[in-house]
Amino acid sequence: MRPLVPVFGEDPIGEESTVPVQGHAEEFRSPGTGENAAVGVLLSHGFTGSPKSMRPFGEHLAAEGYGVAVPRLPGHGTSWQEMNKTTWPEWYAVLDNELERLRKEHDKVFVAGLSMGGCLTLRLAEEHGTDISGLVLINPSVRTDDKRSVLLPVLSRVVPSFPGISNDIKKPGVDEGAYDRMPLKALFSLSQLWKVTREDLAKVTQPVLLFRSTVDHVVEPSSGLTVLASISSRDVTETLLEDSYHVATLDNDAPRIFADSAAFIRRVAADA
Q: Which of 60, 76, 106, 246 is an active site residue?
């Protein structure tokens, strides 16, 4: 992770404030068309990010006829101060509600997530079992090797934020639109999500396609390896991305992610 330099006393947004959603953070949905309309796909962005990081992925799947939902998680796409007022159960609840809607509208539903979004989709798989047909994980985060994380319970009470971890993208000129600060209360909540998700990884039995960047400056390799070693799925494929950093859905390997994911969804849906 990057150097942690705290900012003190920098939380000017009041409890009752409403922060406008940033223009790039708009949600994306498509109902599905043609022979693939019976399948819905729920996509989740990562920590401090927004639907912008997953929109091209969603648009690709929508162009193939799949029903698609790319929601904005609470506290994201507004301000890091606003995000500091949210917790992982709120982020999860949005995805849970979207999953319920997609299940009513489609015969089969797949879930896909980037980074923290991967952790949230793993949690969905743990909780919903066979209601989810398969998972696509892109650099999923379920832990950190950074020893400084043990200080989070205390630091999050006194320090609002650290420098952000956005734009870990190899491709020049690409901006994911994430916050330039990392809200510590929200980060502490994320660490709690990691814990409960890791404890239940054996409950994941669905087919899994996992993409992992060989160079990732945000999530350590131990996260992906923990997932692979702990899930109970028998249909598991790991693909290493040699030309992308953390936000691989906006990076050089994005076309491969989109094409391989569509092929995975097509194969698993046909076999189910």
A: 246
